[in-house]
């Protein structure tokens, strides 16, 4: 297994509050890793550090074994293939579904794609996120679940090496969640790592190879969802609530 993301001894403080406390973890290419834990555990902060939005006070983040991205800019990290869907969908008013995916596709490649290649890529992505019949619709008209898928599509369009999804099924109906399970499973590839922050444990169980439980900025437990459910400390700080 090759390590896609190595987070080593990372510390983040906001004033005197320790959001991440000497946190270390390694995520392999080919796996779907879920990050779970109570509100305030540091899950979003971890994604912020990996994507270059928050600078850690200590520690480092290494992408693909050799590329230290700890102090790289947000755009350099995205350009390297480490991509993120945020917790809240950010849809551009007035742009269609197709135009959103085009933005994602163009953002991912240094050289401009040919028009034909771009159109093919867009069609492929729109199909994979289940919006094939909605390409020309203004994205603002989509249902909440469809907006979440569109955001995943924008990330996907750039052919990323690391995909980070922050709460992809929050607020979705059971049927939409079901479709998101299939979508996330379809994203996995031997040369890609997928990191999912989520509170829906049934969803996590169905998509994740391994689960990291964060608590107060540290790893409380790491293992399969079955082991996570059986761990008394995890039940105590999170699942039992
Ligand atoms: N920019 C910030 N300034 C101050 N405190 C922050 C900031 N970002 C996050 N925090 C605090 O850090 C803690 C961890 O937040 P977060 O990573 O968002 O948790 P999670 O995603 O696990 O719910 C929370 O207590 C939050 O209030
Ligand atoms: Mg969060």
Task: Outline the structure in words.
- The chain has 241 residues and is of the alpha/beta class.
- It has one domain: Rossmann fold, CATH 3.40.50.300.
- It has 9 helices and 10 strands.
- The two termini are 35 Å apart.
- The model has no long low-confidence stretch (mean pLDDT 94).
- Bound molecules: adenosine-5'-diphosphate and magnesium ion.
- The site of adenosine-5'-diphosphate (ADP) has 10 residues, from helix 1.
Features:
alpha/beta; binds adenosine-5'-diphosphate; six-stranded mixed sheet; 26% strand; 9 helices; 241 residues
Give a nutshell description of this structure.
With 241 residues, the chain is an alpha/beta fold. Helices cover 36% and strands 26% of the residues.
Layout of secondary structure:
Elements: E1 3-14, E2 17-28, E3 32-36, H1 43-50, E4 58-63, E5 67-68, H2 74-79, E6 82-85, H3 97-107, H4 115-128, H5 144-156, E7 162-166, H6 174-187, E8 193-197, H7 201-207, E9 210-215, E10 218-223, H8 225-230, H9 232-239
Parallel strand pairs: 3-8, 3-9, 6-7, 7-8
Antiparallel strand pairs: 1-2, 1-4, 4-5, 9-10
The structure holds adenosine-5'-diphosphate (ADP) and magnesium ion.
Adenosine-5'-diphosphate binds at residues 14, 19, 37, 39-45.
């Amino acid at each position: 297994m090759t390590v896609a993301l190595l987070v080593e001894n990372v510390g983040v403080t906001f004033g005197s509050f320790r959001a991440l406390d000497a946190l270390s973890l390694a995520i392999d290419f080919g796996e779907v890793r879920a990050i779970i834990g109570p509100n305030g555990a540091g899950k979003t902060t971890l994604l912020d550090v990996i994507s270059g939005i928050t600078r850690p006070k200590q520690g480092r983040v290494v992408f693909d074994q050799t590329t230290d991205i700890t102090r790289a800019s947000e755009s350099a990290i995205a350009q390297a293939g480490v991509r993120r869907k945020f917790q809240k969908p950010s849809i551009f008013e007035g742009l269609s579904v197709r135009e959103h995916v085009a933005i994602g596709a163009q953002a991912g490649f240094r050289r401009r794609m040919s028009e034909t290649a771009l159109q093919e890529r867009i069609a492929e992505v729109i199909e994979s996120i289940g919006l094939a019949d909605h390409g020309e619709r203004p994205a603002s008209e989509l249902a909440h679940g469809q907006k979440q898928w569109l955001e995943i599509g924008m990330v996907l369009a750039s052919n990323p090496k690391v995909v980070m999804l922050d709460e992809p099924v929050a607020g979705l109906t059971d049927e939409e969640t079901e479709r998101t399970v299939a979508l996330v499973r379809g994203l996995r590839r031997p040369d890609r790592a997928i990191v999912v922050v989520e509170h829906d444990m049934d969803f996590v169980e169905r998509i994740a190879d391994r689960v990291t439980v964060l608590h107060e900025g540290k790893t409380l437990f790491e293992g399969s969802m079955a082991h996570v459910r059986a761990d008394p400390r995890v039940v105590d700080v999170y699942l039992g609530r």
